[in-house]
Design goal:
By secondary structure, this protein is mostly helical. It has 23 helices and 10 strands. A hairpin with a 7-residue loop joins strand 7 and strand 8.
Length: 659
């Protein structure tokens, strides 16, 4: 009997049927889709993007499209198809551009009910004209690159929307050369950067003190509750205050009662007063709602200095900082590269845990575990890893350990009550004052964390409290990368490595200030000047050999020159590099360092070189040019301290002859 070869397709079908019989219906793979629903009675539209490898899908809120009923389906499908190939951050950014420009234009032009077939050349031309006329908050027009992105977002969506072939051709081109007009992010001055650091450290230390005070109140209050103590009444402002209600034991009792009655989020003052008027009055008139809740968890304003400290330590992208997760932080990295030993203690045995933690803490800094923070930047080709010393700070300064400990303490109470999956492991969690009392992080599926109004308002408050210049996390990162180049003499690769940029062009275009660019130009000029000096002297003079003792423009080693391109010496031309080797002691533009032994060593070497050349020059030239040089040099050497002179003679060097 002839054997029949089974095809691959038949094998797959047979296997699927067998799994279906053994395990029930085979699970359907998640797909990119649109979901409609309602929230608080309002209709919603959400784009669902599955995550490669499994996990929670990315949800993009498109409910704003429902305000444009005749365009909603077209643009929702276009965004869905276009967003398949994008990372979550790019989806949020592009959706924000479409909403903030195209749909804002339609809304302002009373075109909410326009159907797709009426999107003609006139509407598109009006959109472009609107972009050029639009002004930012500071009154400046939109940057050409911003206009390019706004038009590009519209074109990309229509290219992916089904049945919109005619529409995509109507979208005009963006401004020509917009990418070439891109400017780097404005950076801060060094003193401004130090002011921000000082303000952040000051607030972190205040947060630590406030948290410690809250823990003392908890302990005292629970002891009083166990003893059966009752809360003193607080009549409020109208009837006069009860002095006992303002004492620390009564405040501690109120805090403990809040802790016991509300194990998660503390409700609004109205709800507290409804349930217990006496407790509510104590909170309102003796503590204050904000102070009371600050003993339990962080507000958005509390997180600002902590986020700034993380940004300073990591130099991460602003969105990476805002969406940082605890799973991306490893606090037990051994300095030799192995995981540090971890100690587990039983829950509830607080005193024993604290004692043992103190006993096992290493005194030797070399044995303190490092902290590894991995930056999640989806668009990057590789994840950025920072290996940091958690105790690398002075006693009066803020350490990374303190920042992470505070973040863990300030969010531990509310973390179990987080509803949205995207916030559950976030490092930065808070309970907003307005709206639902739900713990959340910064940003959402349609908005970047650094663009969240809650974050921006909190940062503005920090800036106002410390009288700082306007800045954001993007400015901070650009400034730090700029100073990496500055401190490394314009090393672009050093900044590229710290910024995790795939191309040096990105670092140069977006993260290099005009100051550093001028520095690089000066460095190029110095290189040419050094090469010119070396060539003109026939290889006898190389300023690179005495970089610590002289500047590159000076004609004689060991001296400093105020203007090497405007020498007053004979036979020198203006705007040309001075070549008067050996004549610097008698030049009014020269400066000396008689307190430096290396410079004094070069001064004595020059004196010997001048006297060696006496037989090579004529008597008039010697009297006119070199005698004043020797006199000035001898006068300078007489002022040198004996100790400096002795140190300079420990090493002898010879300079080329003059003349």
């Amino acid at each position: 009997m002839k054997k029949v070869r089974v095809s691959v397709a038949q094998k797959v079908v047979a296997r699927a049927r067998r799994l279906n019989q053994e395990q029930g219906n085979v699970h359907v793979l998640p797909t990119t889709r649109l979901e409609r629903g309602t929230t608080d009675g309002k209709p919603t539209l959400t784009a669902v993007f599955p995550v490669k490898g499994g996990g929670e899908p990315h949800l993009l809120d498109l409910s704003f499209l429902l305000d444009f009923p005749l365009l909603a389906e077209l643009f929702a499908e276009g965004l869905l198809q276009w967003g398949k190939s994008l990372d979550p951050k790019s989806r949020i950014t592009r959706c924000g551009e479409l909403r903030g420009y195209w749909f804002e234009y339609l809304s302002g032009s009373r075109l909410r009910d326009i159907p797709p077939e009426r999107l003609d050349e006139q509407v598109m031309a009006g959109f472009v004209a609107w972009l050029y006329q639009k002004r930012k908050i500071d009154g400046q027009p939109l940057h050409p690159n911003t206009i390019r992105k706004a038009i590009g977002a519209l074109r990309n969506v229509l290219e992916n929307a089904p049945g919109s072939e005619a529409l995509r051709d109507l979208v005009p081109a963006g401004p020509r050369g917009a990418m070439r007009k891109t400017k780097p992010t404005e950076v801060l001055q060094f003193d401004q950067l130090l002011q921000i650091m000082a303000g952040a450290e000051e607030e972190v230390l205040a947060l630590r003190d406030r948290w410690d005070k809250g823990q003392r109140l908890f302990k005292l209050g629970h002891e009083l509750l166990e003893q059966g103590a009752e809360l003193e009444s607080n009549p409020g402002k109208k009837k006069g205050k009860n002095p006992k209600s303002l004492l620390e034991p009564n405040l501690a009792l109120a805090v403990a009662m809040l802790d016991k009655r509300y194990p998660g989020v503390i409700p609004d003052l109205v709800d507290i007063k409804t349930r217990d008027p006496r407790l509510g009055a104590t909170i309102e008139f003796a503590l204050g709602q904000s102070i009371a809740t600050s003993y339990f968890y962080a507000s958005s304003r509390d997180l600002v200095p902590l986020a700034l400290c993380i940004a300073f330590a990591t130099v991460f992208n602003s969105e990476t900082v805002m969406r940082l997760k605890w799973q991306e932080i490893d606090r037990n990295v051994d300095r030799l590269g192995n995981d540090a030993v971890q100690f587990d203690f039983r829950e509830g045995d607080h005193e024993e845990r604290e004692d043992k933690a103190e006993d096992v803490e290493p005194d030797d800094p070399a044995k303190v575990p490092l902290v590894r923070i991995t930056g999640d930047k989806p668009r990057a080709k590789r994840q950025l890893v920072r290996l940091l010393d958690p105790k690398a700070s002075r006693p009066a300064q803020v350490s990374l350990n303190l920042v992470l400990d505070l973040l863990a303490a300030l969010t531990s109470r509310i973390r179990p009550h987080v509803v949205a999956p995207e916030y559950r492991d976030r490092v930065f969690l808070f309970v907003q004052k307005n709206g639902p009392k739900q713990p959340k992080g910064f940003g959402n599926s349609t908005q970047a964390g650094s663009g969240d109004d809650v974050w921006k308002n909190a940062l503005d408050s920090f800036i106002a409290d410390h009288k700082l210049p306007d800045f954001n996390l993007k400015t901070l990162r650009a400034t730090l990368l700029d100073f990496v180049q500055l401190f490394n003499r314009g090393d672009l690769e050093a900044a590229q490595k710290v910024g995790n940029h795939g191309s040096r062009l990105t670092t140069w275009t977006h993260y290099t200030s005009d100051l550093v660019k001028r520095l690089l130009q000066e460095a190029t000029g110095e290189t040419l000047m050094v090469r010119e000096r070396w060539l003109d002297s026939g290889g006898k003079l190389d300023p690179r050999q005495h970089r610590e003792s002289t500047n590159k423009g000076c004609a004689t080693p060991g001296w400093l020159c105020l203007d090497p391109y405007d020498s007053p010496r004979p036979n020198q031309r203006k705007n040309r590099l001075c070549t008067a080797y050996g004549e610097c002691p008698d030049c009014p533009l020269a400066a000396a360092r008689p307190e430096n032994p290396r410079n004094v060593m070069l001064y004595e070497a020059l004196r010997r070189a001048v006297y060696r050349s006496i037989t090579r020059v004529t008597s008039p030239v010697w009297q006119q040019r070199w005698v004043p040089v020797v006199v000035a040099l001898d006068a300078l050497l007489k002022d040198v301290q004996p100790a400096v002179l002795d140190r300079s003679r420990s090493l002898c060097i010879e300079l080329p002859d003059v003349g």
